[in-house]
Recover the amino acids of this structure.
């Protein structure tokens, strides 16, 4: 079983693998990047482990789960530290029955099913009163933290604590709302659509921008044009539109940047929403190709150097011919 | 000139390269890792650019500075965003006249000179009333964000804003002090020295631990045993001791983990210290080998999964024979 541990300085919770930990020596050699389809875990018959399926999308419990709900969530002290066993769930969303690696190559219909699956699983997990946050995210490629690039898949983690960045974002949005009585994200969307220089693509319900204070080259955010704090509820009736804009931006990455590794994370509101969150938080998706290594001081200080202005990357991505 | 831009959501400042930005296409191909000594910039005569030197250590201005003080620091709005030109300074500390790559291979005397140089440059930069924070850090190896592994060097950046993690750390330490009327770091040092399971090595003035809520495998922190908020002042008379413990931990990494890439960052207090900081903040150094890639949700949410418990890495590092 793993542990959830809280950093006493910045109140950051981390998961620490304990019993199933990798041996120290395992870190000395680089990870395998083997992608042979005949060894693909996700091409095999996984029916015994399936917790949900729909139109070729299957959700299974992670085979090496770092979270589980076998015993109740309980925080306790350890001297001046805080610790808990790593309560929660960790699921793998197998996005297609084919051995296709990149979500950019799935049909819009298939991506739509993946999106609906995220929303449905979030609705299930939030019934558990111990769950505070549900993360749906993807690691594509070794540089993005995946072990291989074999078969399109993403992950859903339901955790009993609020991740640090989620706290930062909701607090920041709240401060803005307190002062302006308007949603910060709604104001951002309005400003970006007016200025246009950081808009990569848009459709009826969504806009993709390269954020003004980008941390990483080609960082993009997909923002819903209408206000909604929650992904699982806000996405209803908008799944087609989100599938279309996700395929669009992922194709721009694939064609324009030579099939880079990338991550996306759905940034929805905390499960237990105080009433205020409904007005001041606005769900969105961060999509980040992994083209550079983050240097020490960025990792250690949260102070990033973005080596290219977002206006230039928006321009570049806009001009990629995704119908080529 | 680059820009400093503030993320309106989490109030995170980032540096965005503008005029000297890399072209979008430059991100498509992986970076060069060439390390040929005859092409080494730091082996050449750099005397024209030297701003400080002592016992084989030279400090030069970065040849592609992302910060400069040519015009005064001024924050301004850009719609709902905040921006400033990237005021400050960016220096390279060339740690030796030899073409030695790893600080672990320098003599203690040489490391001591590097440490003294950091302190002296910090004392110079903090005379500038626009400077809020001074970062001294090292990127060793490509995986740690360096362009090559050619010649031992580190960097000093003086910036006119507080990095996000520094704010988080000082705020967290302040909360603890407000409640307990004791320094959080002093309490941590006492607890770690008593429990011992996360102590890697120690000497008269410093202890190296693997932190309880480690984010990364083999993450270590060097903590002064005596309280001091500020590196440049607190290090006086302790330079020998710090040089010894730095060489010790870096040798443990080199021998035990097969010469891994690593970063270290000196986490000193902000330049403009309210009186409170003196009691509740405690300078320290984070040292992190770069053995794994950070996956998407960690980067996006600040929620880390550490694949090995710090007690196990402390044990492993303690047993490395650095006299082999």
């Amino acid at each position: 079983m793993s542990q959830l541990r809280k950093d006493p300085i910045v109140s950051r919770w981390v998961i620490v693998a304990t019993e199933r930990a990798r041996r120290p020596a395992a870190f000395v050699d680089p990870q395998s990047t083997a992608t042979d389809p005949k060894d693909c875990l996700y091409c095999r018959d996984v029916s015994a482990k399936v917790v949900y399926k729909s139109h070729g999308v299957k959700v299974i419990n992670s085979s090496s789960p770092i979270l589980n709900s076998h015993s109740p969530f309980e925080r306790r002290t350890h001297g001046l530290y805080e610790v808990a066993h790593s309560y929660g769930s960790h699921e793998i969303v197998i996005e297609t029955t084919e051995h296709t690696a990149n979500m950019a190559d799935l049909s819009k219909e298939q991506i739509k099913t993946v999106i609906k699956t995220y929303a449905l699983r979030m609705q299930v997990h939030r019934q558990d009163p111990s769950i505070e946050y549900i993360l749906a995210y993807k690691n594509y490629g070794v540089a993005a933290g995946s072990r291989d690039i074999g078969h399109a898949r993403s992950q859903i983690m339901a955790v009993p604590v609020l991740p640090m960045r989620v706290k930062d974002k909701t607090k920041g949005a709240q401060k803005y709302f307190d002062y302006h009585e308007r949603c910060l994200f709604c104001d951002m969307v309005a400003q970006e659509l007016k200025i246009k220089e950081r808009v990569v693509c848009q459709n009826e319900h969504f806009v993709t921008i390269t954020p003004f204070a980008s941390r990483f080259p080609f960082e993009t955010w997909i923002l819903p044009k209408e206000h909604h704090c929650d992904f699982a509820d806000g996405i209803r009736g908008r799944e087609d539109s989100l599938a279309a804009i996700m395929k669009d931006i992922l194709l721009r990455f694939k064609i324009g940047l030579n099939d880079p590794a990338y991550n996306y994370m759905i940034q929805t509101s905390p499960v237990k929403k105080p009433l205020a969150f409904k007005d001041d938080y606005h769900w969105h998706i961060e999509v980040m190709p992994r083209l550079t290594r983050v240097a020490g001081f960025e990792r250690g200080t949260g102070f990033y150097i973005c080596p290219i202005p977002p206006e230039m990357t928006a321009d570049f991505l806009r001009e990629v011919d995704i119908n080529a």
In short: The radius of gyration of chain B is 20 Å. Chain B has two domains: 3-159, 164-318. The CA atoms of residues 201 and 249 of chain B lie 8 Å apart.
